[in-house]
Specification:
Number of domains of chain A: 1
CATH superfamily of chain B: Aromatic compound dioxygenase
Structural class of chain B: mainly beta
Oligomer: heterodimer
Strand order of the largest sheet of chain A: 3-2-5-6-7-8-1-4
Number of strands of chain A: 9
Strand content of chain A: 25-35%
Distance between the termini of chain A: 9 Å
Bound molecules: fe (ii) ion
Helix content of chain B: under 10%
CATH class of chain B: Mainly Beta
Number of helices of chain A: 2
CATH topology of chain A: Protocatechuate 3,4-Dioxygenase, subunit A
């Protein structure tokens, strides 16, 4: 790891802190949980298969974790993330940012998006996934990644292979029929603590 | 390579922390998957004039009750490189310790001239500035008489930089029993605003609060 060499000259990071219970709801006014529409009122849409993901965040007692701020991030239908490095990528989708944010009042969420694709140009291609960041009262930021249950590429995904086999199922979004609009629906419970706890990842030390 | 990262600790006397803190260690992210953990937020913030002045509801309106303070600082990564054009969201209680949030049921006094919500952007050098009212402490656990010390919540989001933190005040009598302050240990100093005298006399004082965003995310797409 080249990054650890420069440690001596680094500044000490400010401590992250909890979200607290009173994150202003109105600050999410311009956020959307529909990644298929990055601009309202236009007919153009991103490439790919539209899907809906329904889930909830639960605490150690199985109760819904109210008041969390959730952020989602994913690649487009061709597996390309929108970043400064991909702004001129031929497979960047002009109608897809792959970013959504939502403050959940009761712990539930519903995300409309497109099924992320696979970037075949990578040496070790990733299975389709969605990155989830959770901010909550009582805890600082935690991050994880959600996968599609049964997708054959899961078998060779480097992140899934980095965790114990018996934990992988906890990151799987399960197919749950169709929405009223005929879109495929997937569901997942995120368990913040305790039995069946969702695996979370360390993006500060990694 | 070890497989495990940090163990997040539970904030003492914080029930929500007990209910929501993962009991297992965090997992390290293999390099092949690391880029997918640097979410890049699109820039779509429209900041209105006056949003960085939380001492009034809008320009020209009366000042809220309590001590007006100015908070300034610089946002950087661990190498001191400025984090430009990032959105800073700010929220804090009024001088009585009350939030205007619809879920704050404390019954403490509201101030009709104080919203307690602000936004600003960092400039090309990573600097930011906002004005607010010095918040009051509030009783978080009446059953054990545990108060939350005065604090200002801040969220920083720009590019792949992401942090939510709180600025505290030196000498607050409730600092020592605050659950997250206890977890921060000696590092708590990083989260204290440093007081300074402002040239303008319509502020009680200023606080300098530099923010260092740790890890690789802040400059991930510049690094590689
Ligand atoms: Fe607070």
């Amino acid at each position: 790891m080249t990054h650890s060499k420069a440690k001596i000259n680094r500044l000490t990071p400010t401590n992250e802190d909890t979200l607290g219970p009173y994150y202003p709801i109105s600050l999410c006014d311009n956020d959307s949980m529909d990644m298929t529409k990055i601009r309202r009122g236009i007919i153009l849409e991103p490439r790919g298969e539209k899907i809906v993901i329904e889930g909830c965040i639960k605490d150690i007692n199985g109760n819904l974790a109210n008041g969390c701020l959730l952020e989602f991030w994913q690649a487009n239908a061709d597996g390309i993330y929108r970043t400064p490095l991909t702004e001129t990528h031929p497979k960047l989708d002009p109608w897809f940012n792959g970013y959504a944010r939502h403050r959940t009042k009761d712990g539930h969420f519903s995300l409309k998006t497109i099924r992320p694709g696979i970037n075949k140009g990578l040496e070790q291609p990733r299975a389709p996934n969605i990155t989830l960041t959770i901010f909550s009262d009582g805890i600082m930021r935690v991050v994880t990644q959600l996968f599609f249950d049964g997708d054959p590429t899961n078998e060779s995904d480097p992140l899934l292979l980095a965790i114990d086999e018996n934990l992988r199922g906890r990151l799987m979004m399960k197919f749950a029929g169709a929405t009223d609009d005929g879109l495929k629906k997937y569901t997942i419970d995120i368990i913040m603590a305790g039995d069946n706890e969702t695996p979370f990842f360390d993006d500060l030390l990694s | 390579m070890t497989r495990y990262g940090r163990q997040i600790e539970i904030g003492p006397t914080d029930n929500t922390s007990n209910e929501r803190t993962p009991r297992n260690r965090l997992h390290l992210i293999p390099e092949e998957a690391r880029a997918s953990f640097a979410p890049y937020a699109p820039y779509n913030y429209g900041i209105n004039p006056g949003e960085a002045d939380m001492t009034r509801l809008a320009p020209g309106r009366p000042r809220a009750e309590g001590d007006p303070i100015k908070v300034v600082g610089k946002v950087t990564d661990e190498f001191g490189r400025p984090i430009k054009n990032s959105l800073i969201e700010i929220w804090n209680a009024n001088k009585y310790g009350r939030y205007t949030h619809i879920e704050d049921h404390s019954g403490l006094a509201l101030d009709p001239n104080f919203l307690g919500i602000g936004r600003t952007l960092t400039d090309q050098n990573g600097n930011y500035e906002f004005w607010t009212i010095r918040p009051g402490a509030y009783l978080a656990r009446p059953d054990i008489n545990r108060w939350r010390p005065k604090h200002i919540h801040m969220s920083i989001r720009g590019g792949s930089s992401r942090m939510i933190t709180q600025m505290y005040f030196r000498g607050d009598p409730y600092n020592d029993t605050d659950p997250m302050r206890i977890l921060m240990g000696d590092n708590f100093d990083k989260n204290i605003g440093i007081e300074f005298e402002t040239p303008e006399d319509d502020f009680d004082c200023g606080y300098k609060f530099d923010i260092v965003i740790g890890g690789r995310n802040p400059t991930f797409f510049e690094d590689i």
